[in-house]
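Q: My labmate handed me this sequence with no annotations at all. I'd like to see what the chain might look like in three dimensions before we decide whether it's worth expressing. Could you predict it?
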Amino acid sequence: MEVDRRKHPRYRLNNGEFVAIGRNTDMLAFVQNAGAGGLQLQYVSEIGRADQWQRLTIIGGNCSQILIADVSCQVAYDIQSLMEEGSFRGLNVRLCGLAFNELTQLQENILYQLIARRSASKNGKKE
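A: Here is what I predict for the chain of 127 residues:
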């Protein structure tokens, strides 16, 4: 049995609702869940594990609005994953768990607003 070591609950997000862009890269990742202590990304990598997620920017899924810029993170895990329908389909789909390093007050406020909005909605489910 695995023990969840998270200090804060995570809230599942609709796929594509929020996107993360790694610093100094053109890679995008879908934010799968988020909480006060960190988040989980899903991305496709041609090279296997990608190490660009230590600093990222979170934007709206339509890519029209930066929500939280220049977030500092620590990679907790980065593992290969199946596609939603349970197949690999030749893609290197990965799940990456990130723990936030020190957030600015503004970043923290925006994050809490996003979490509050998600947890108040019917789609926001704790993980």
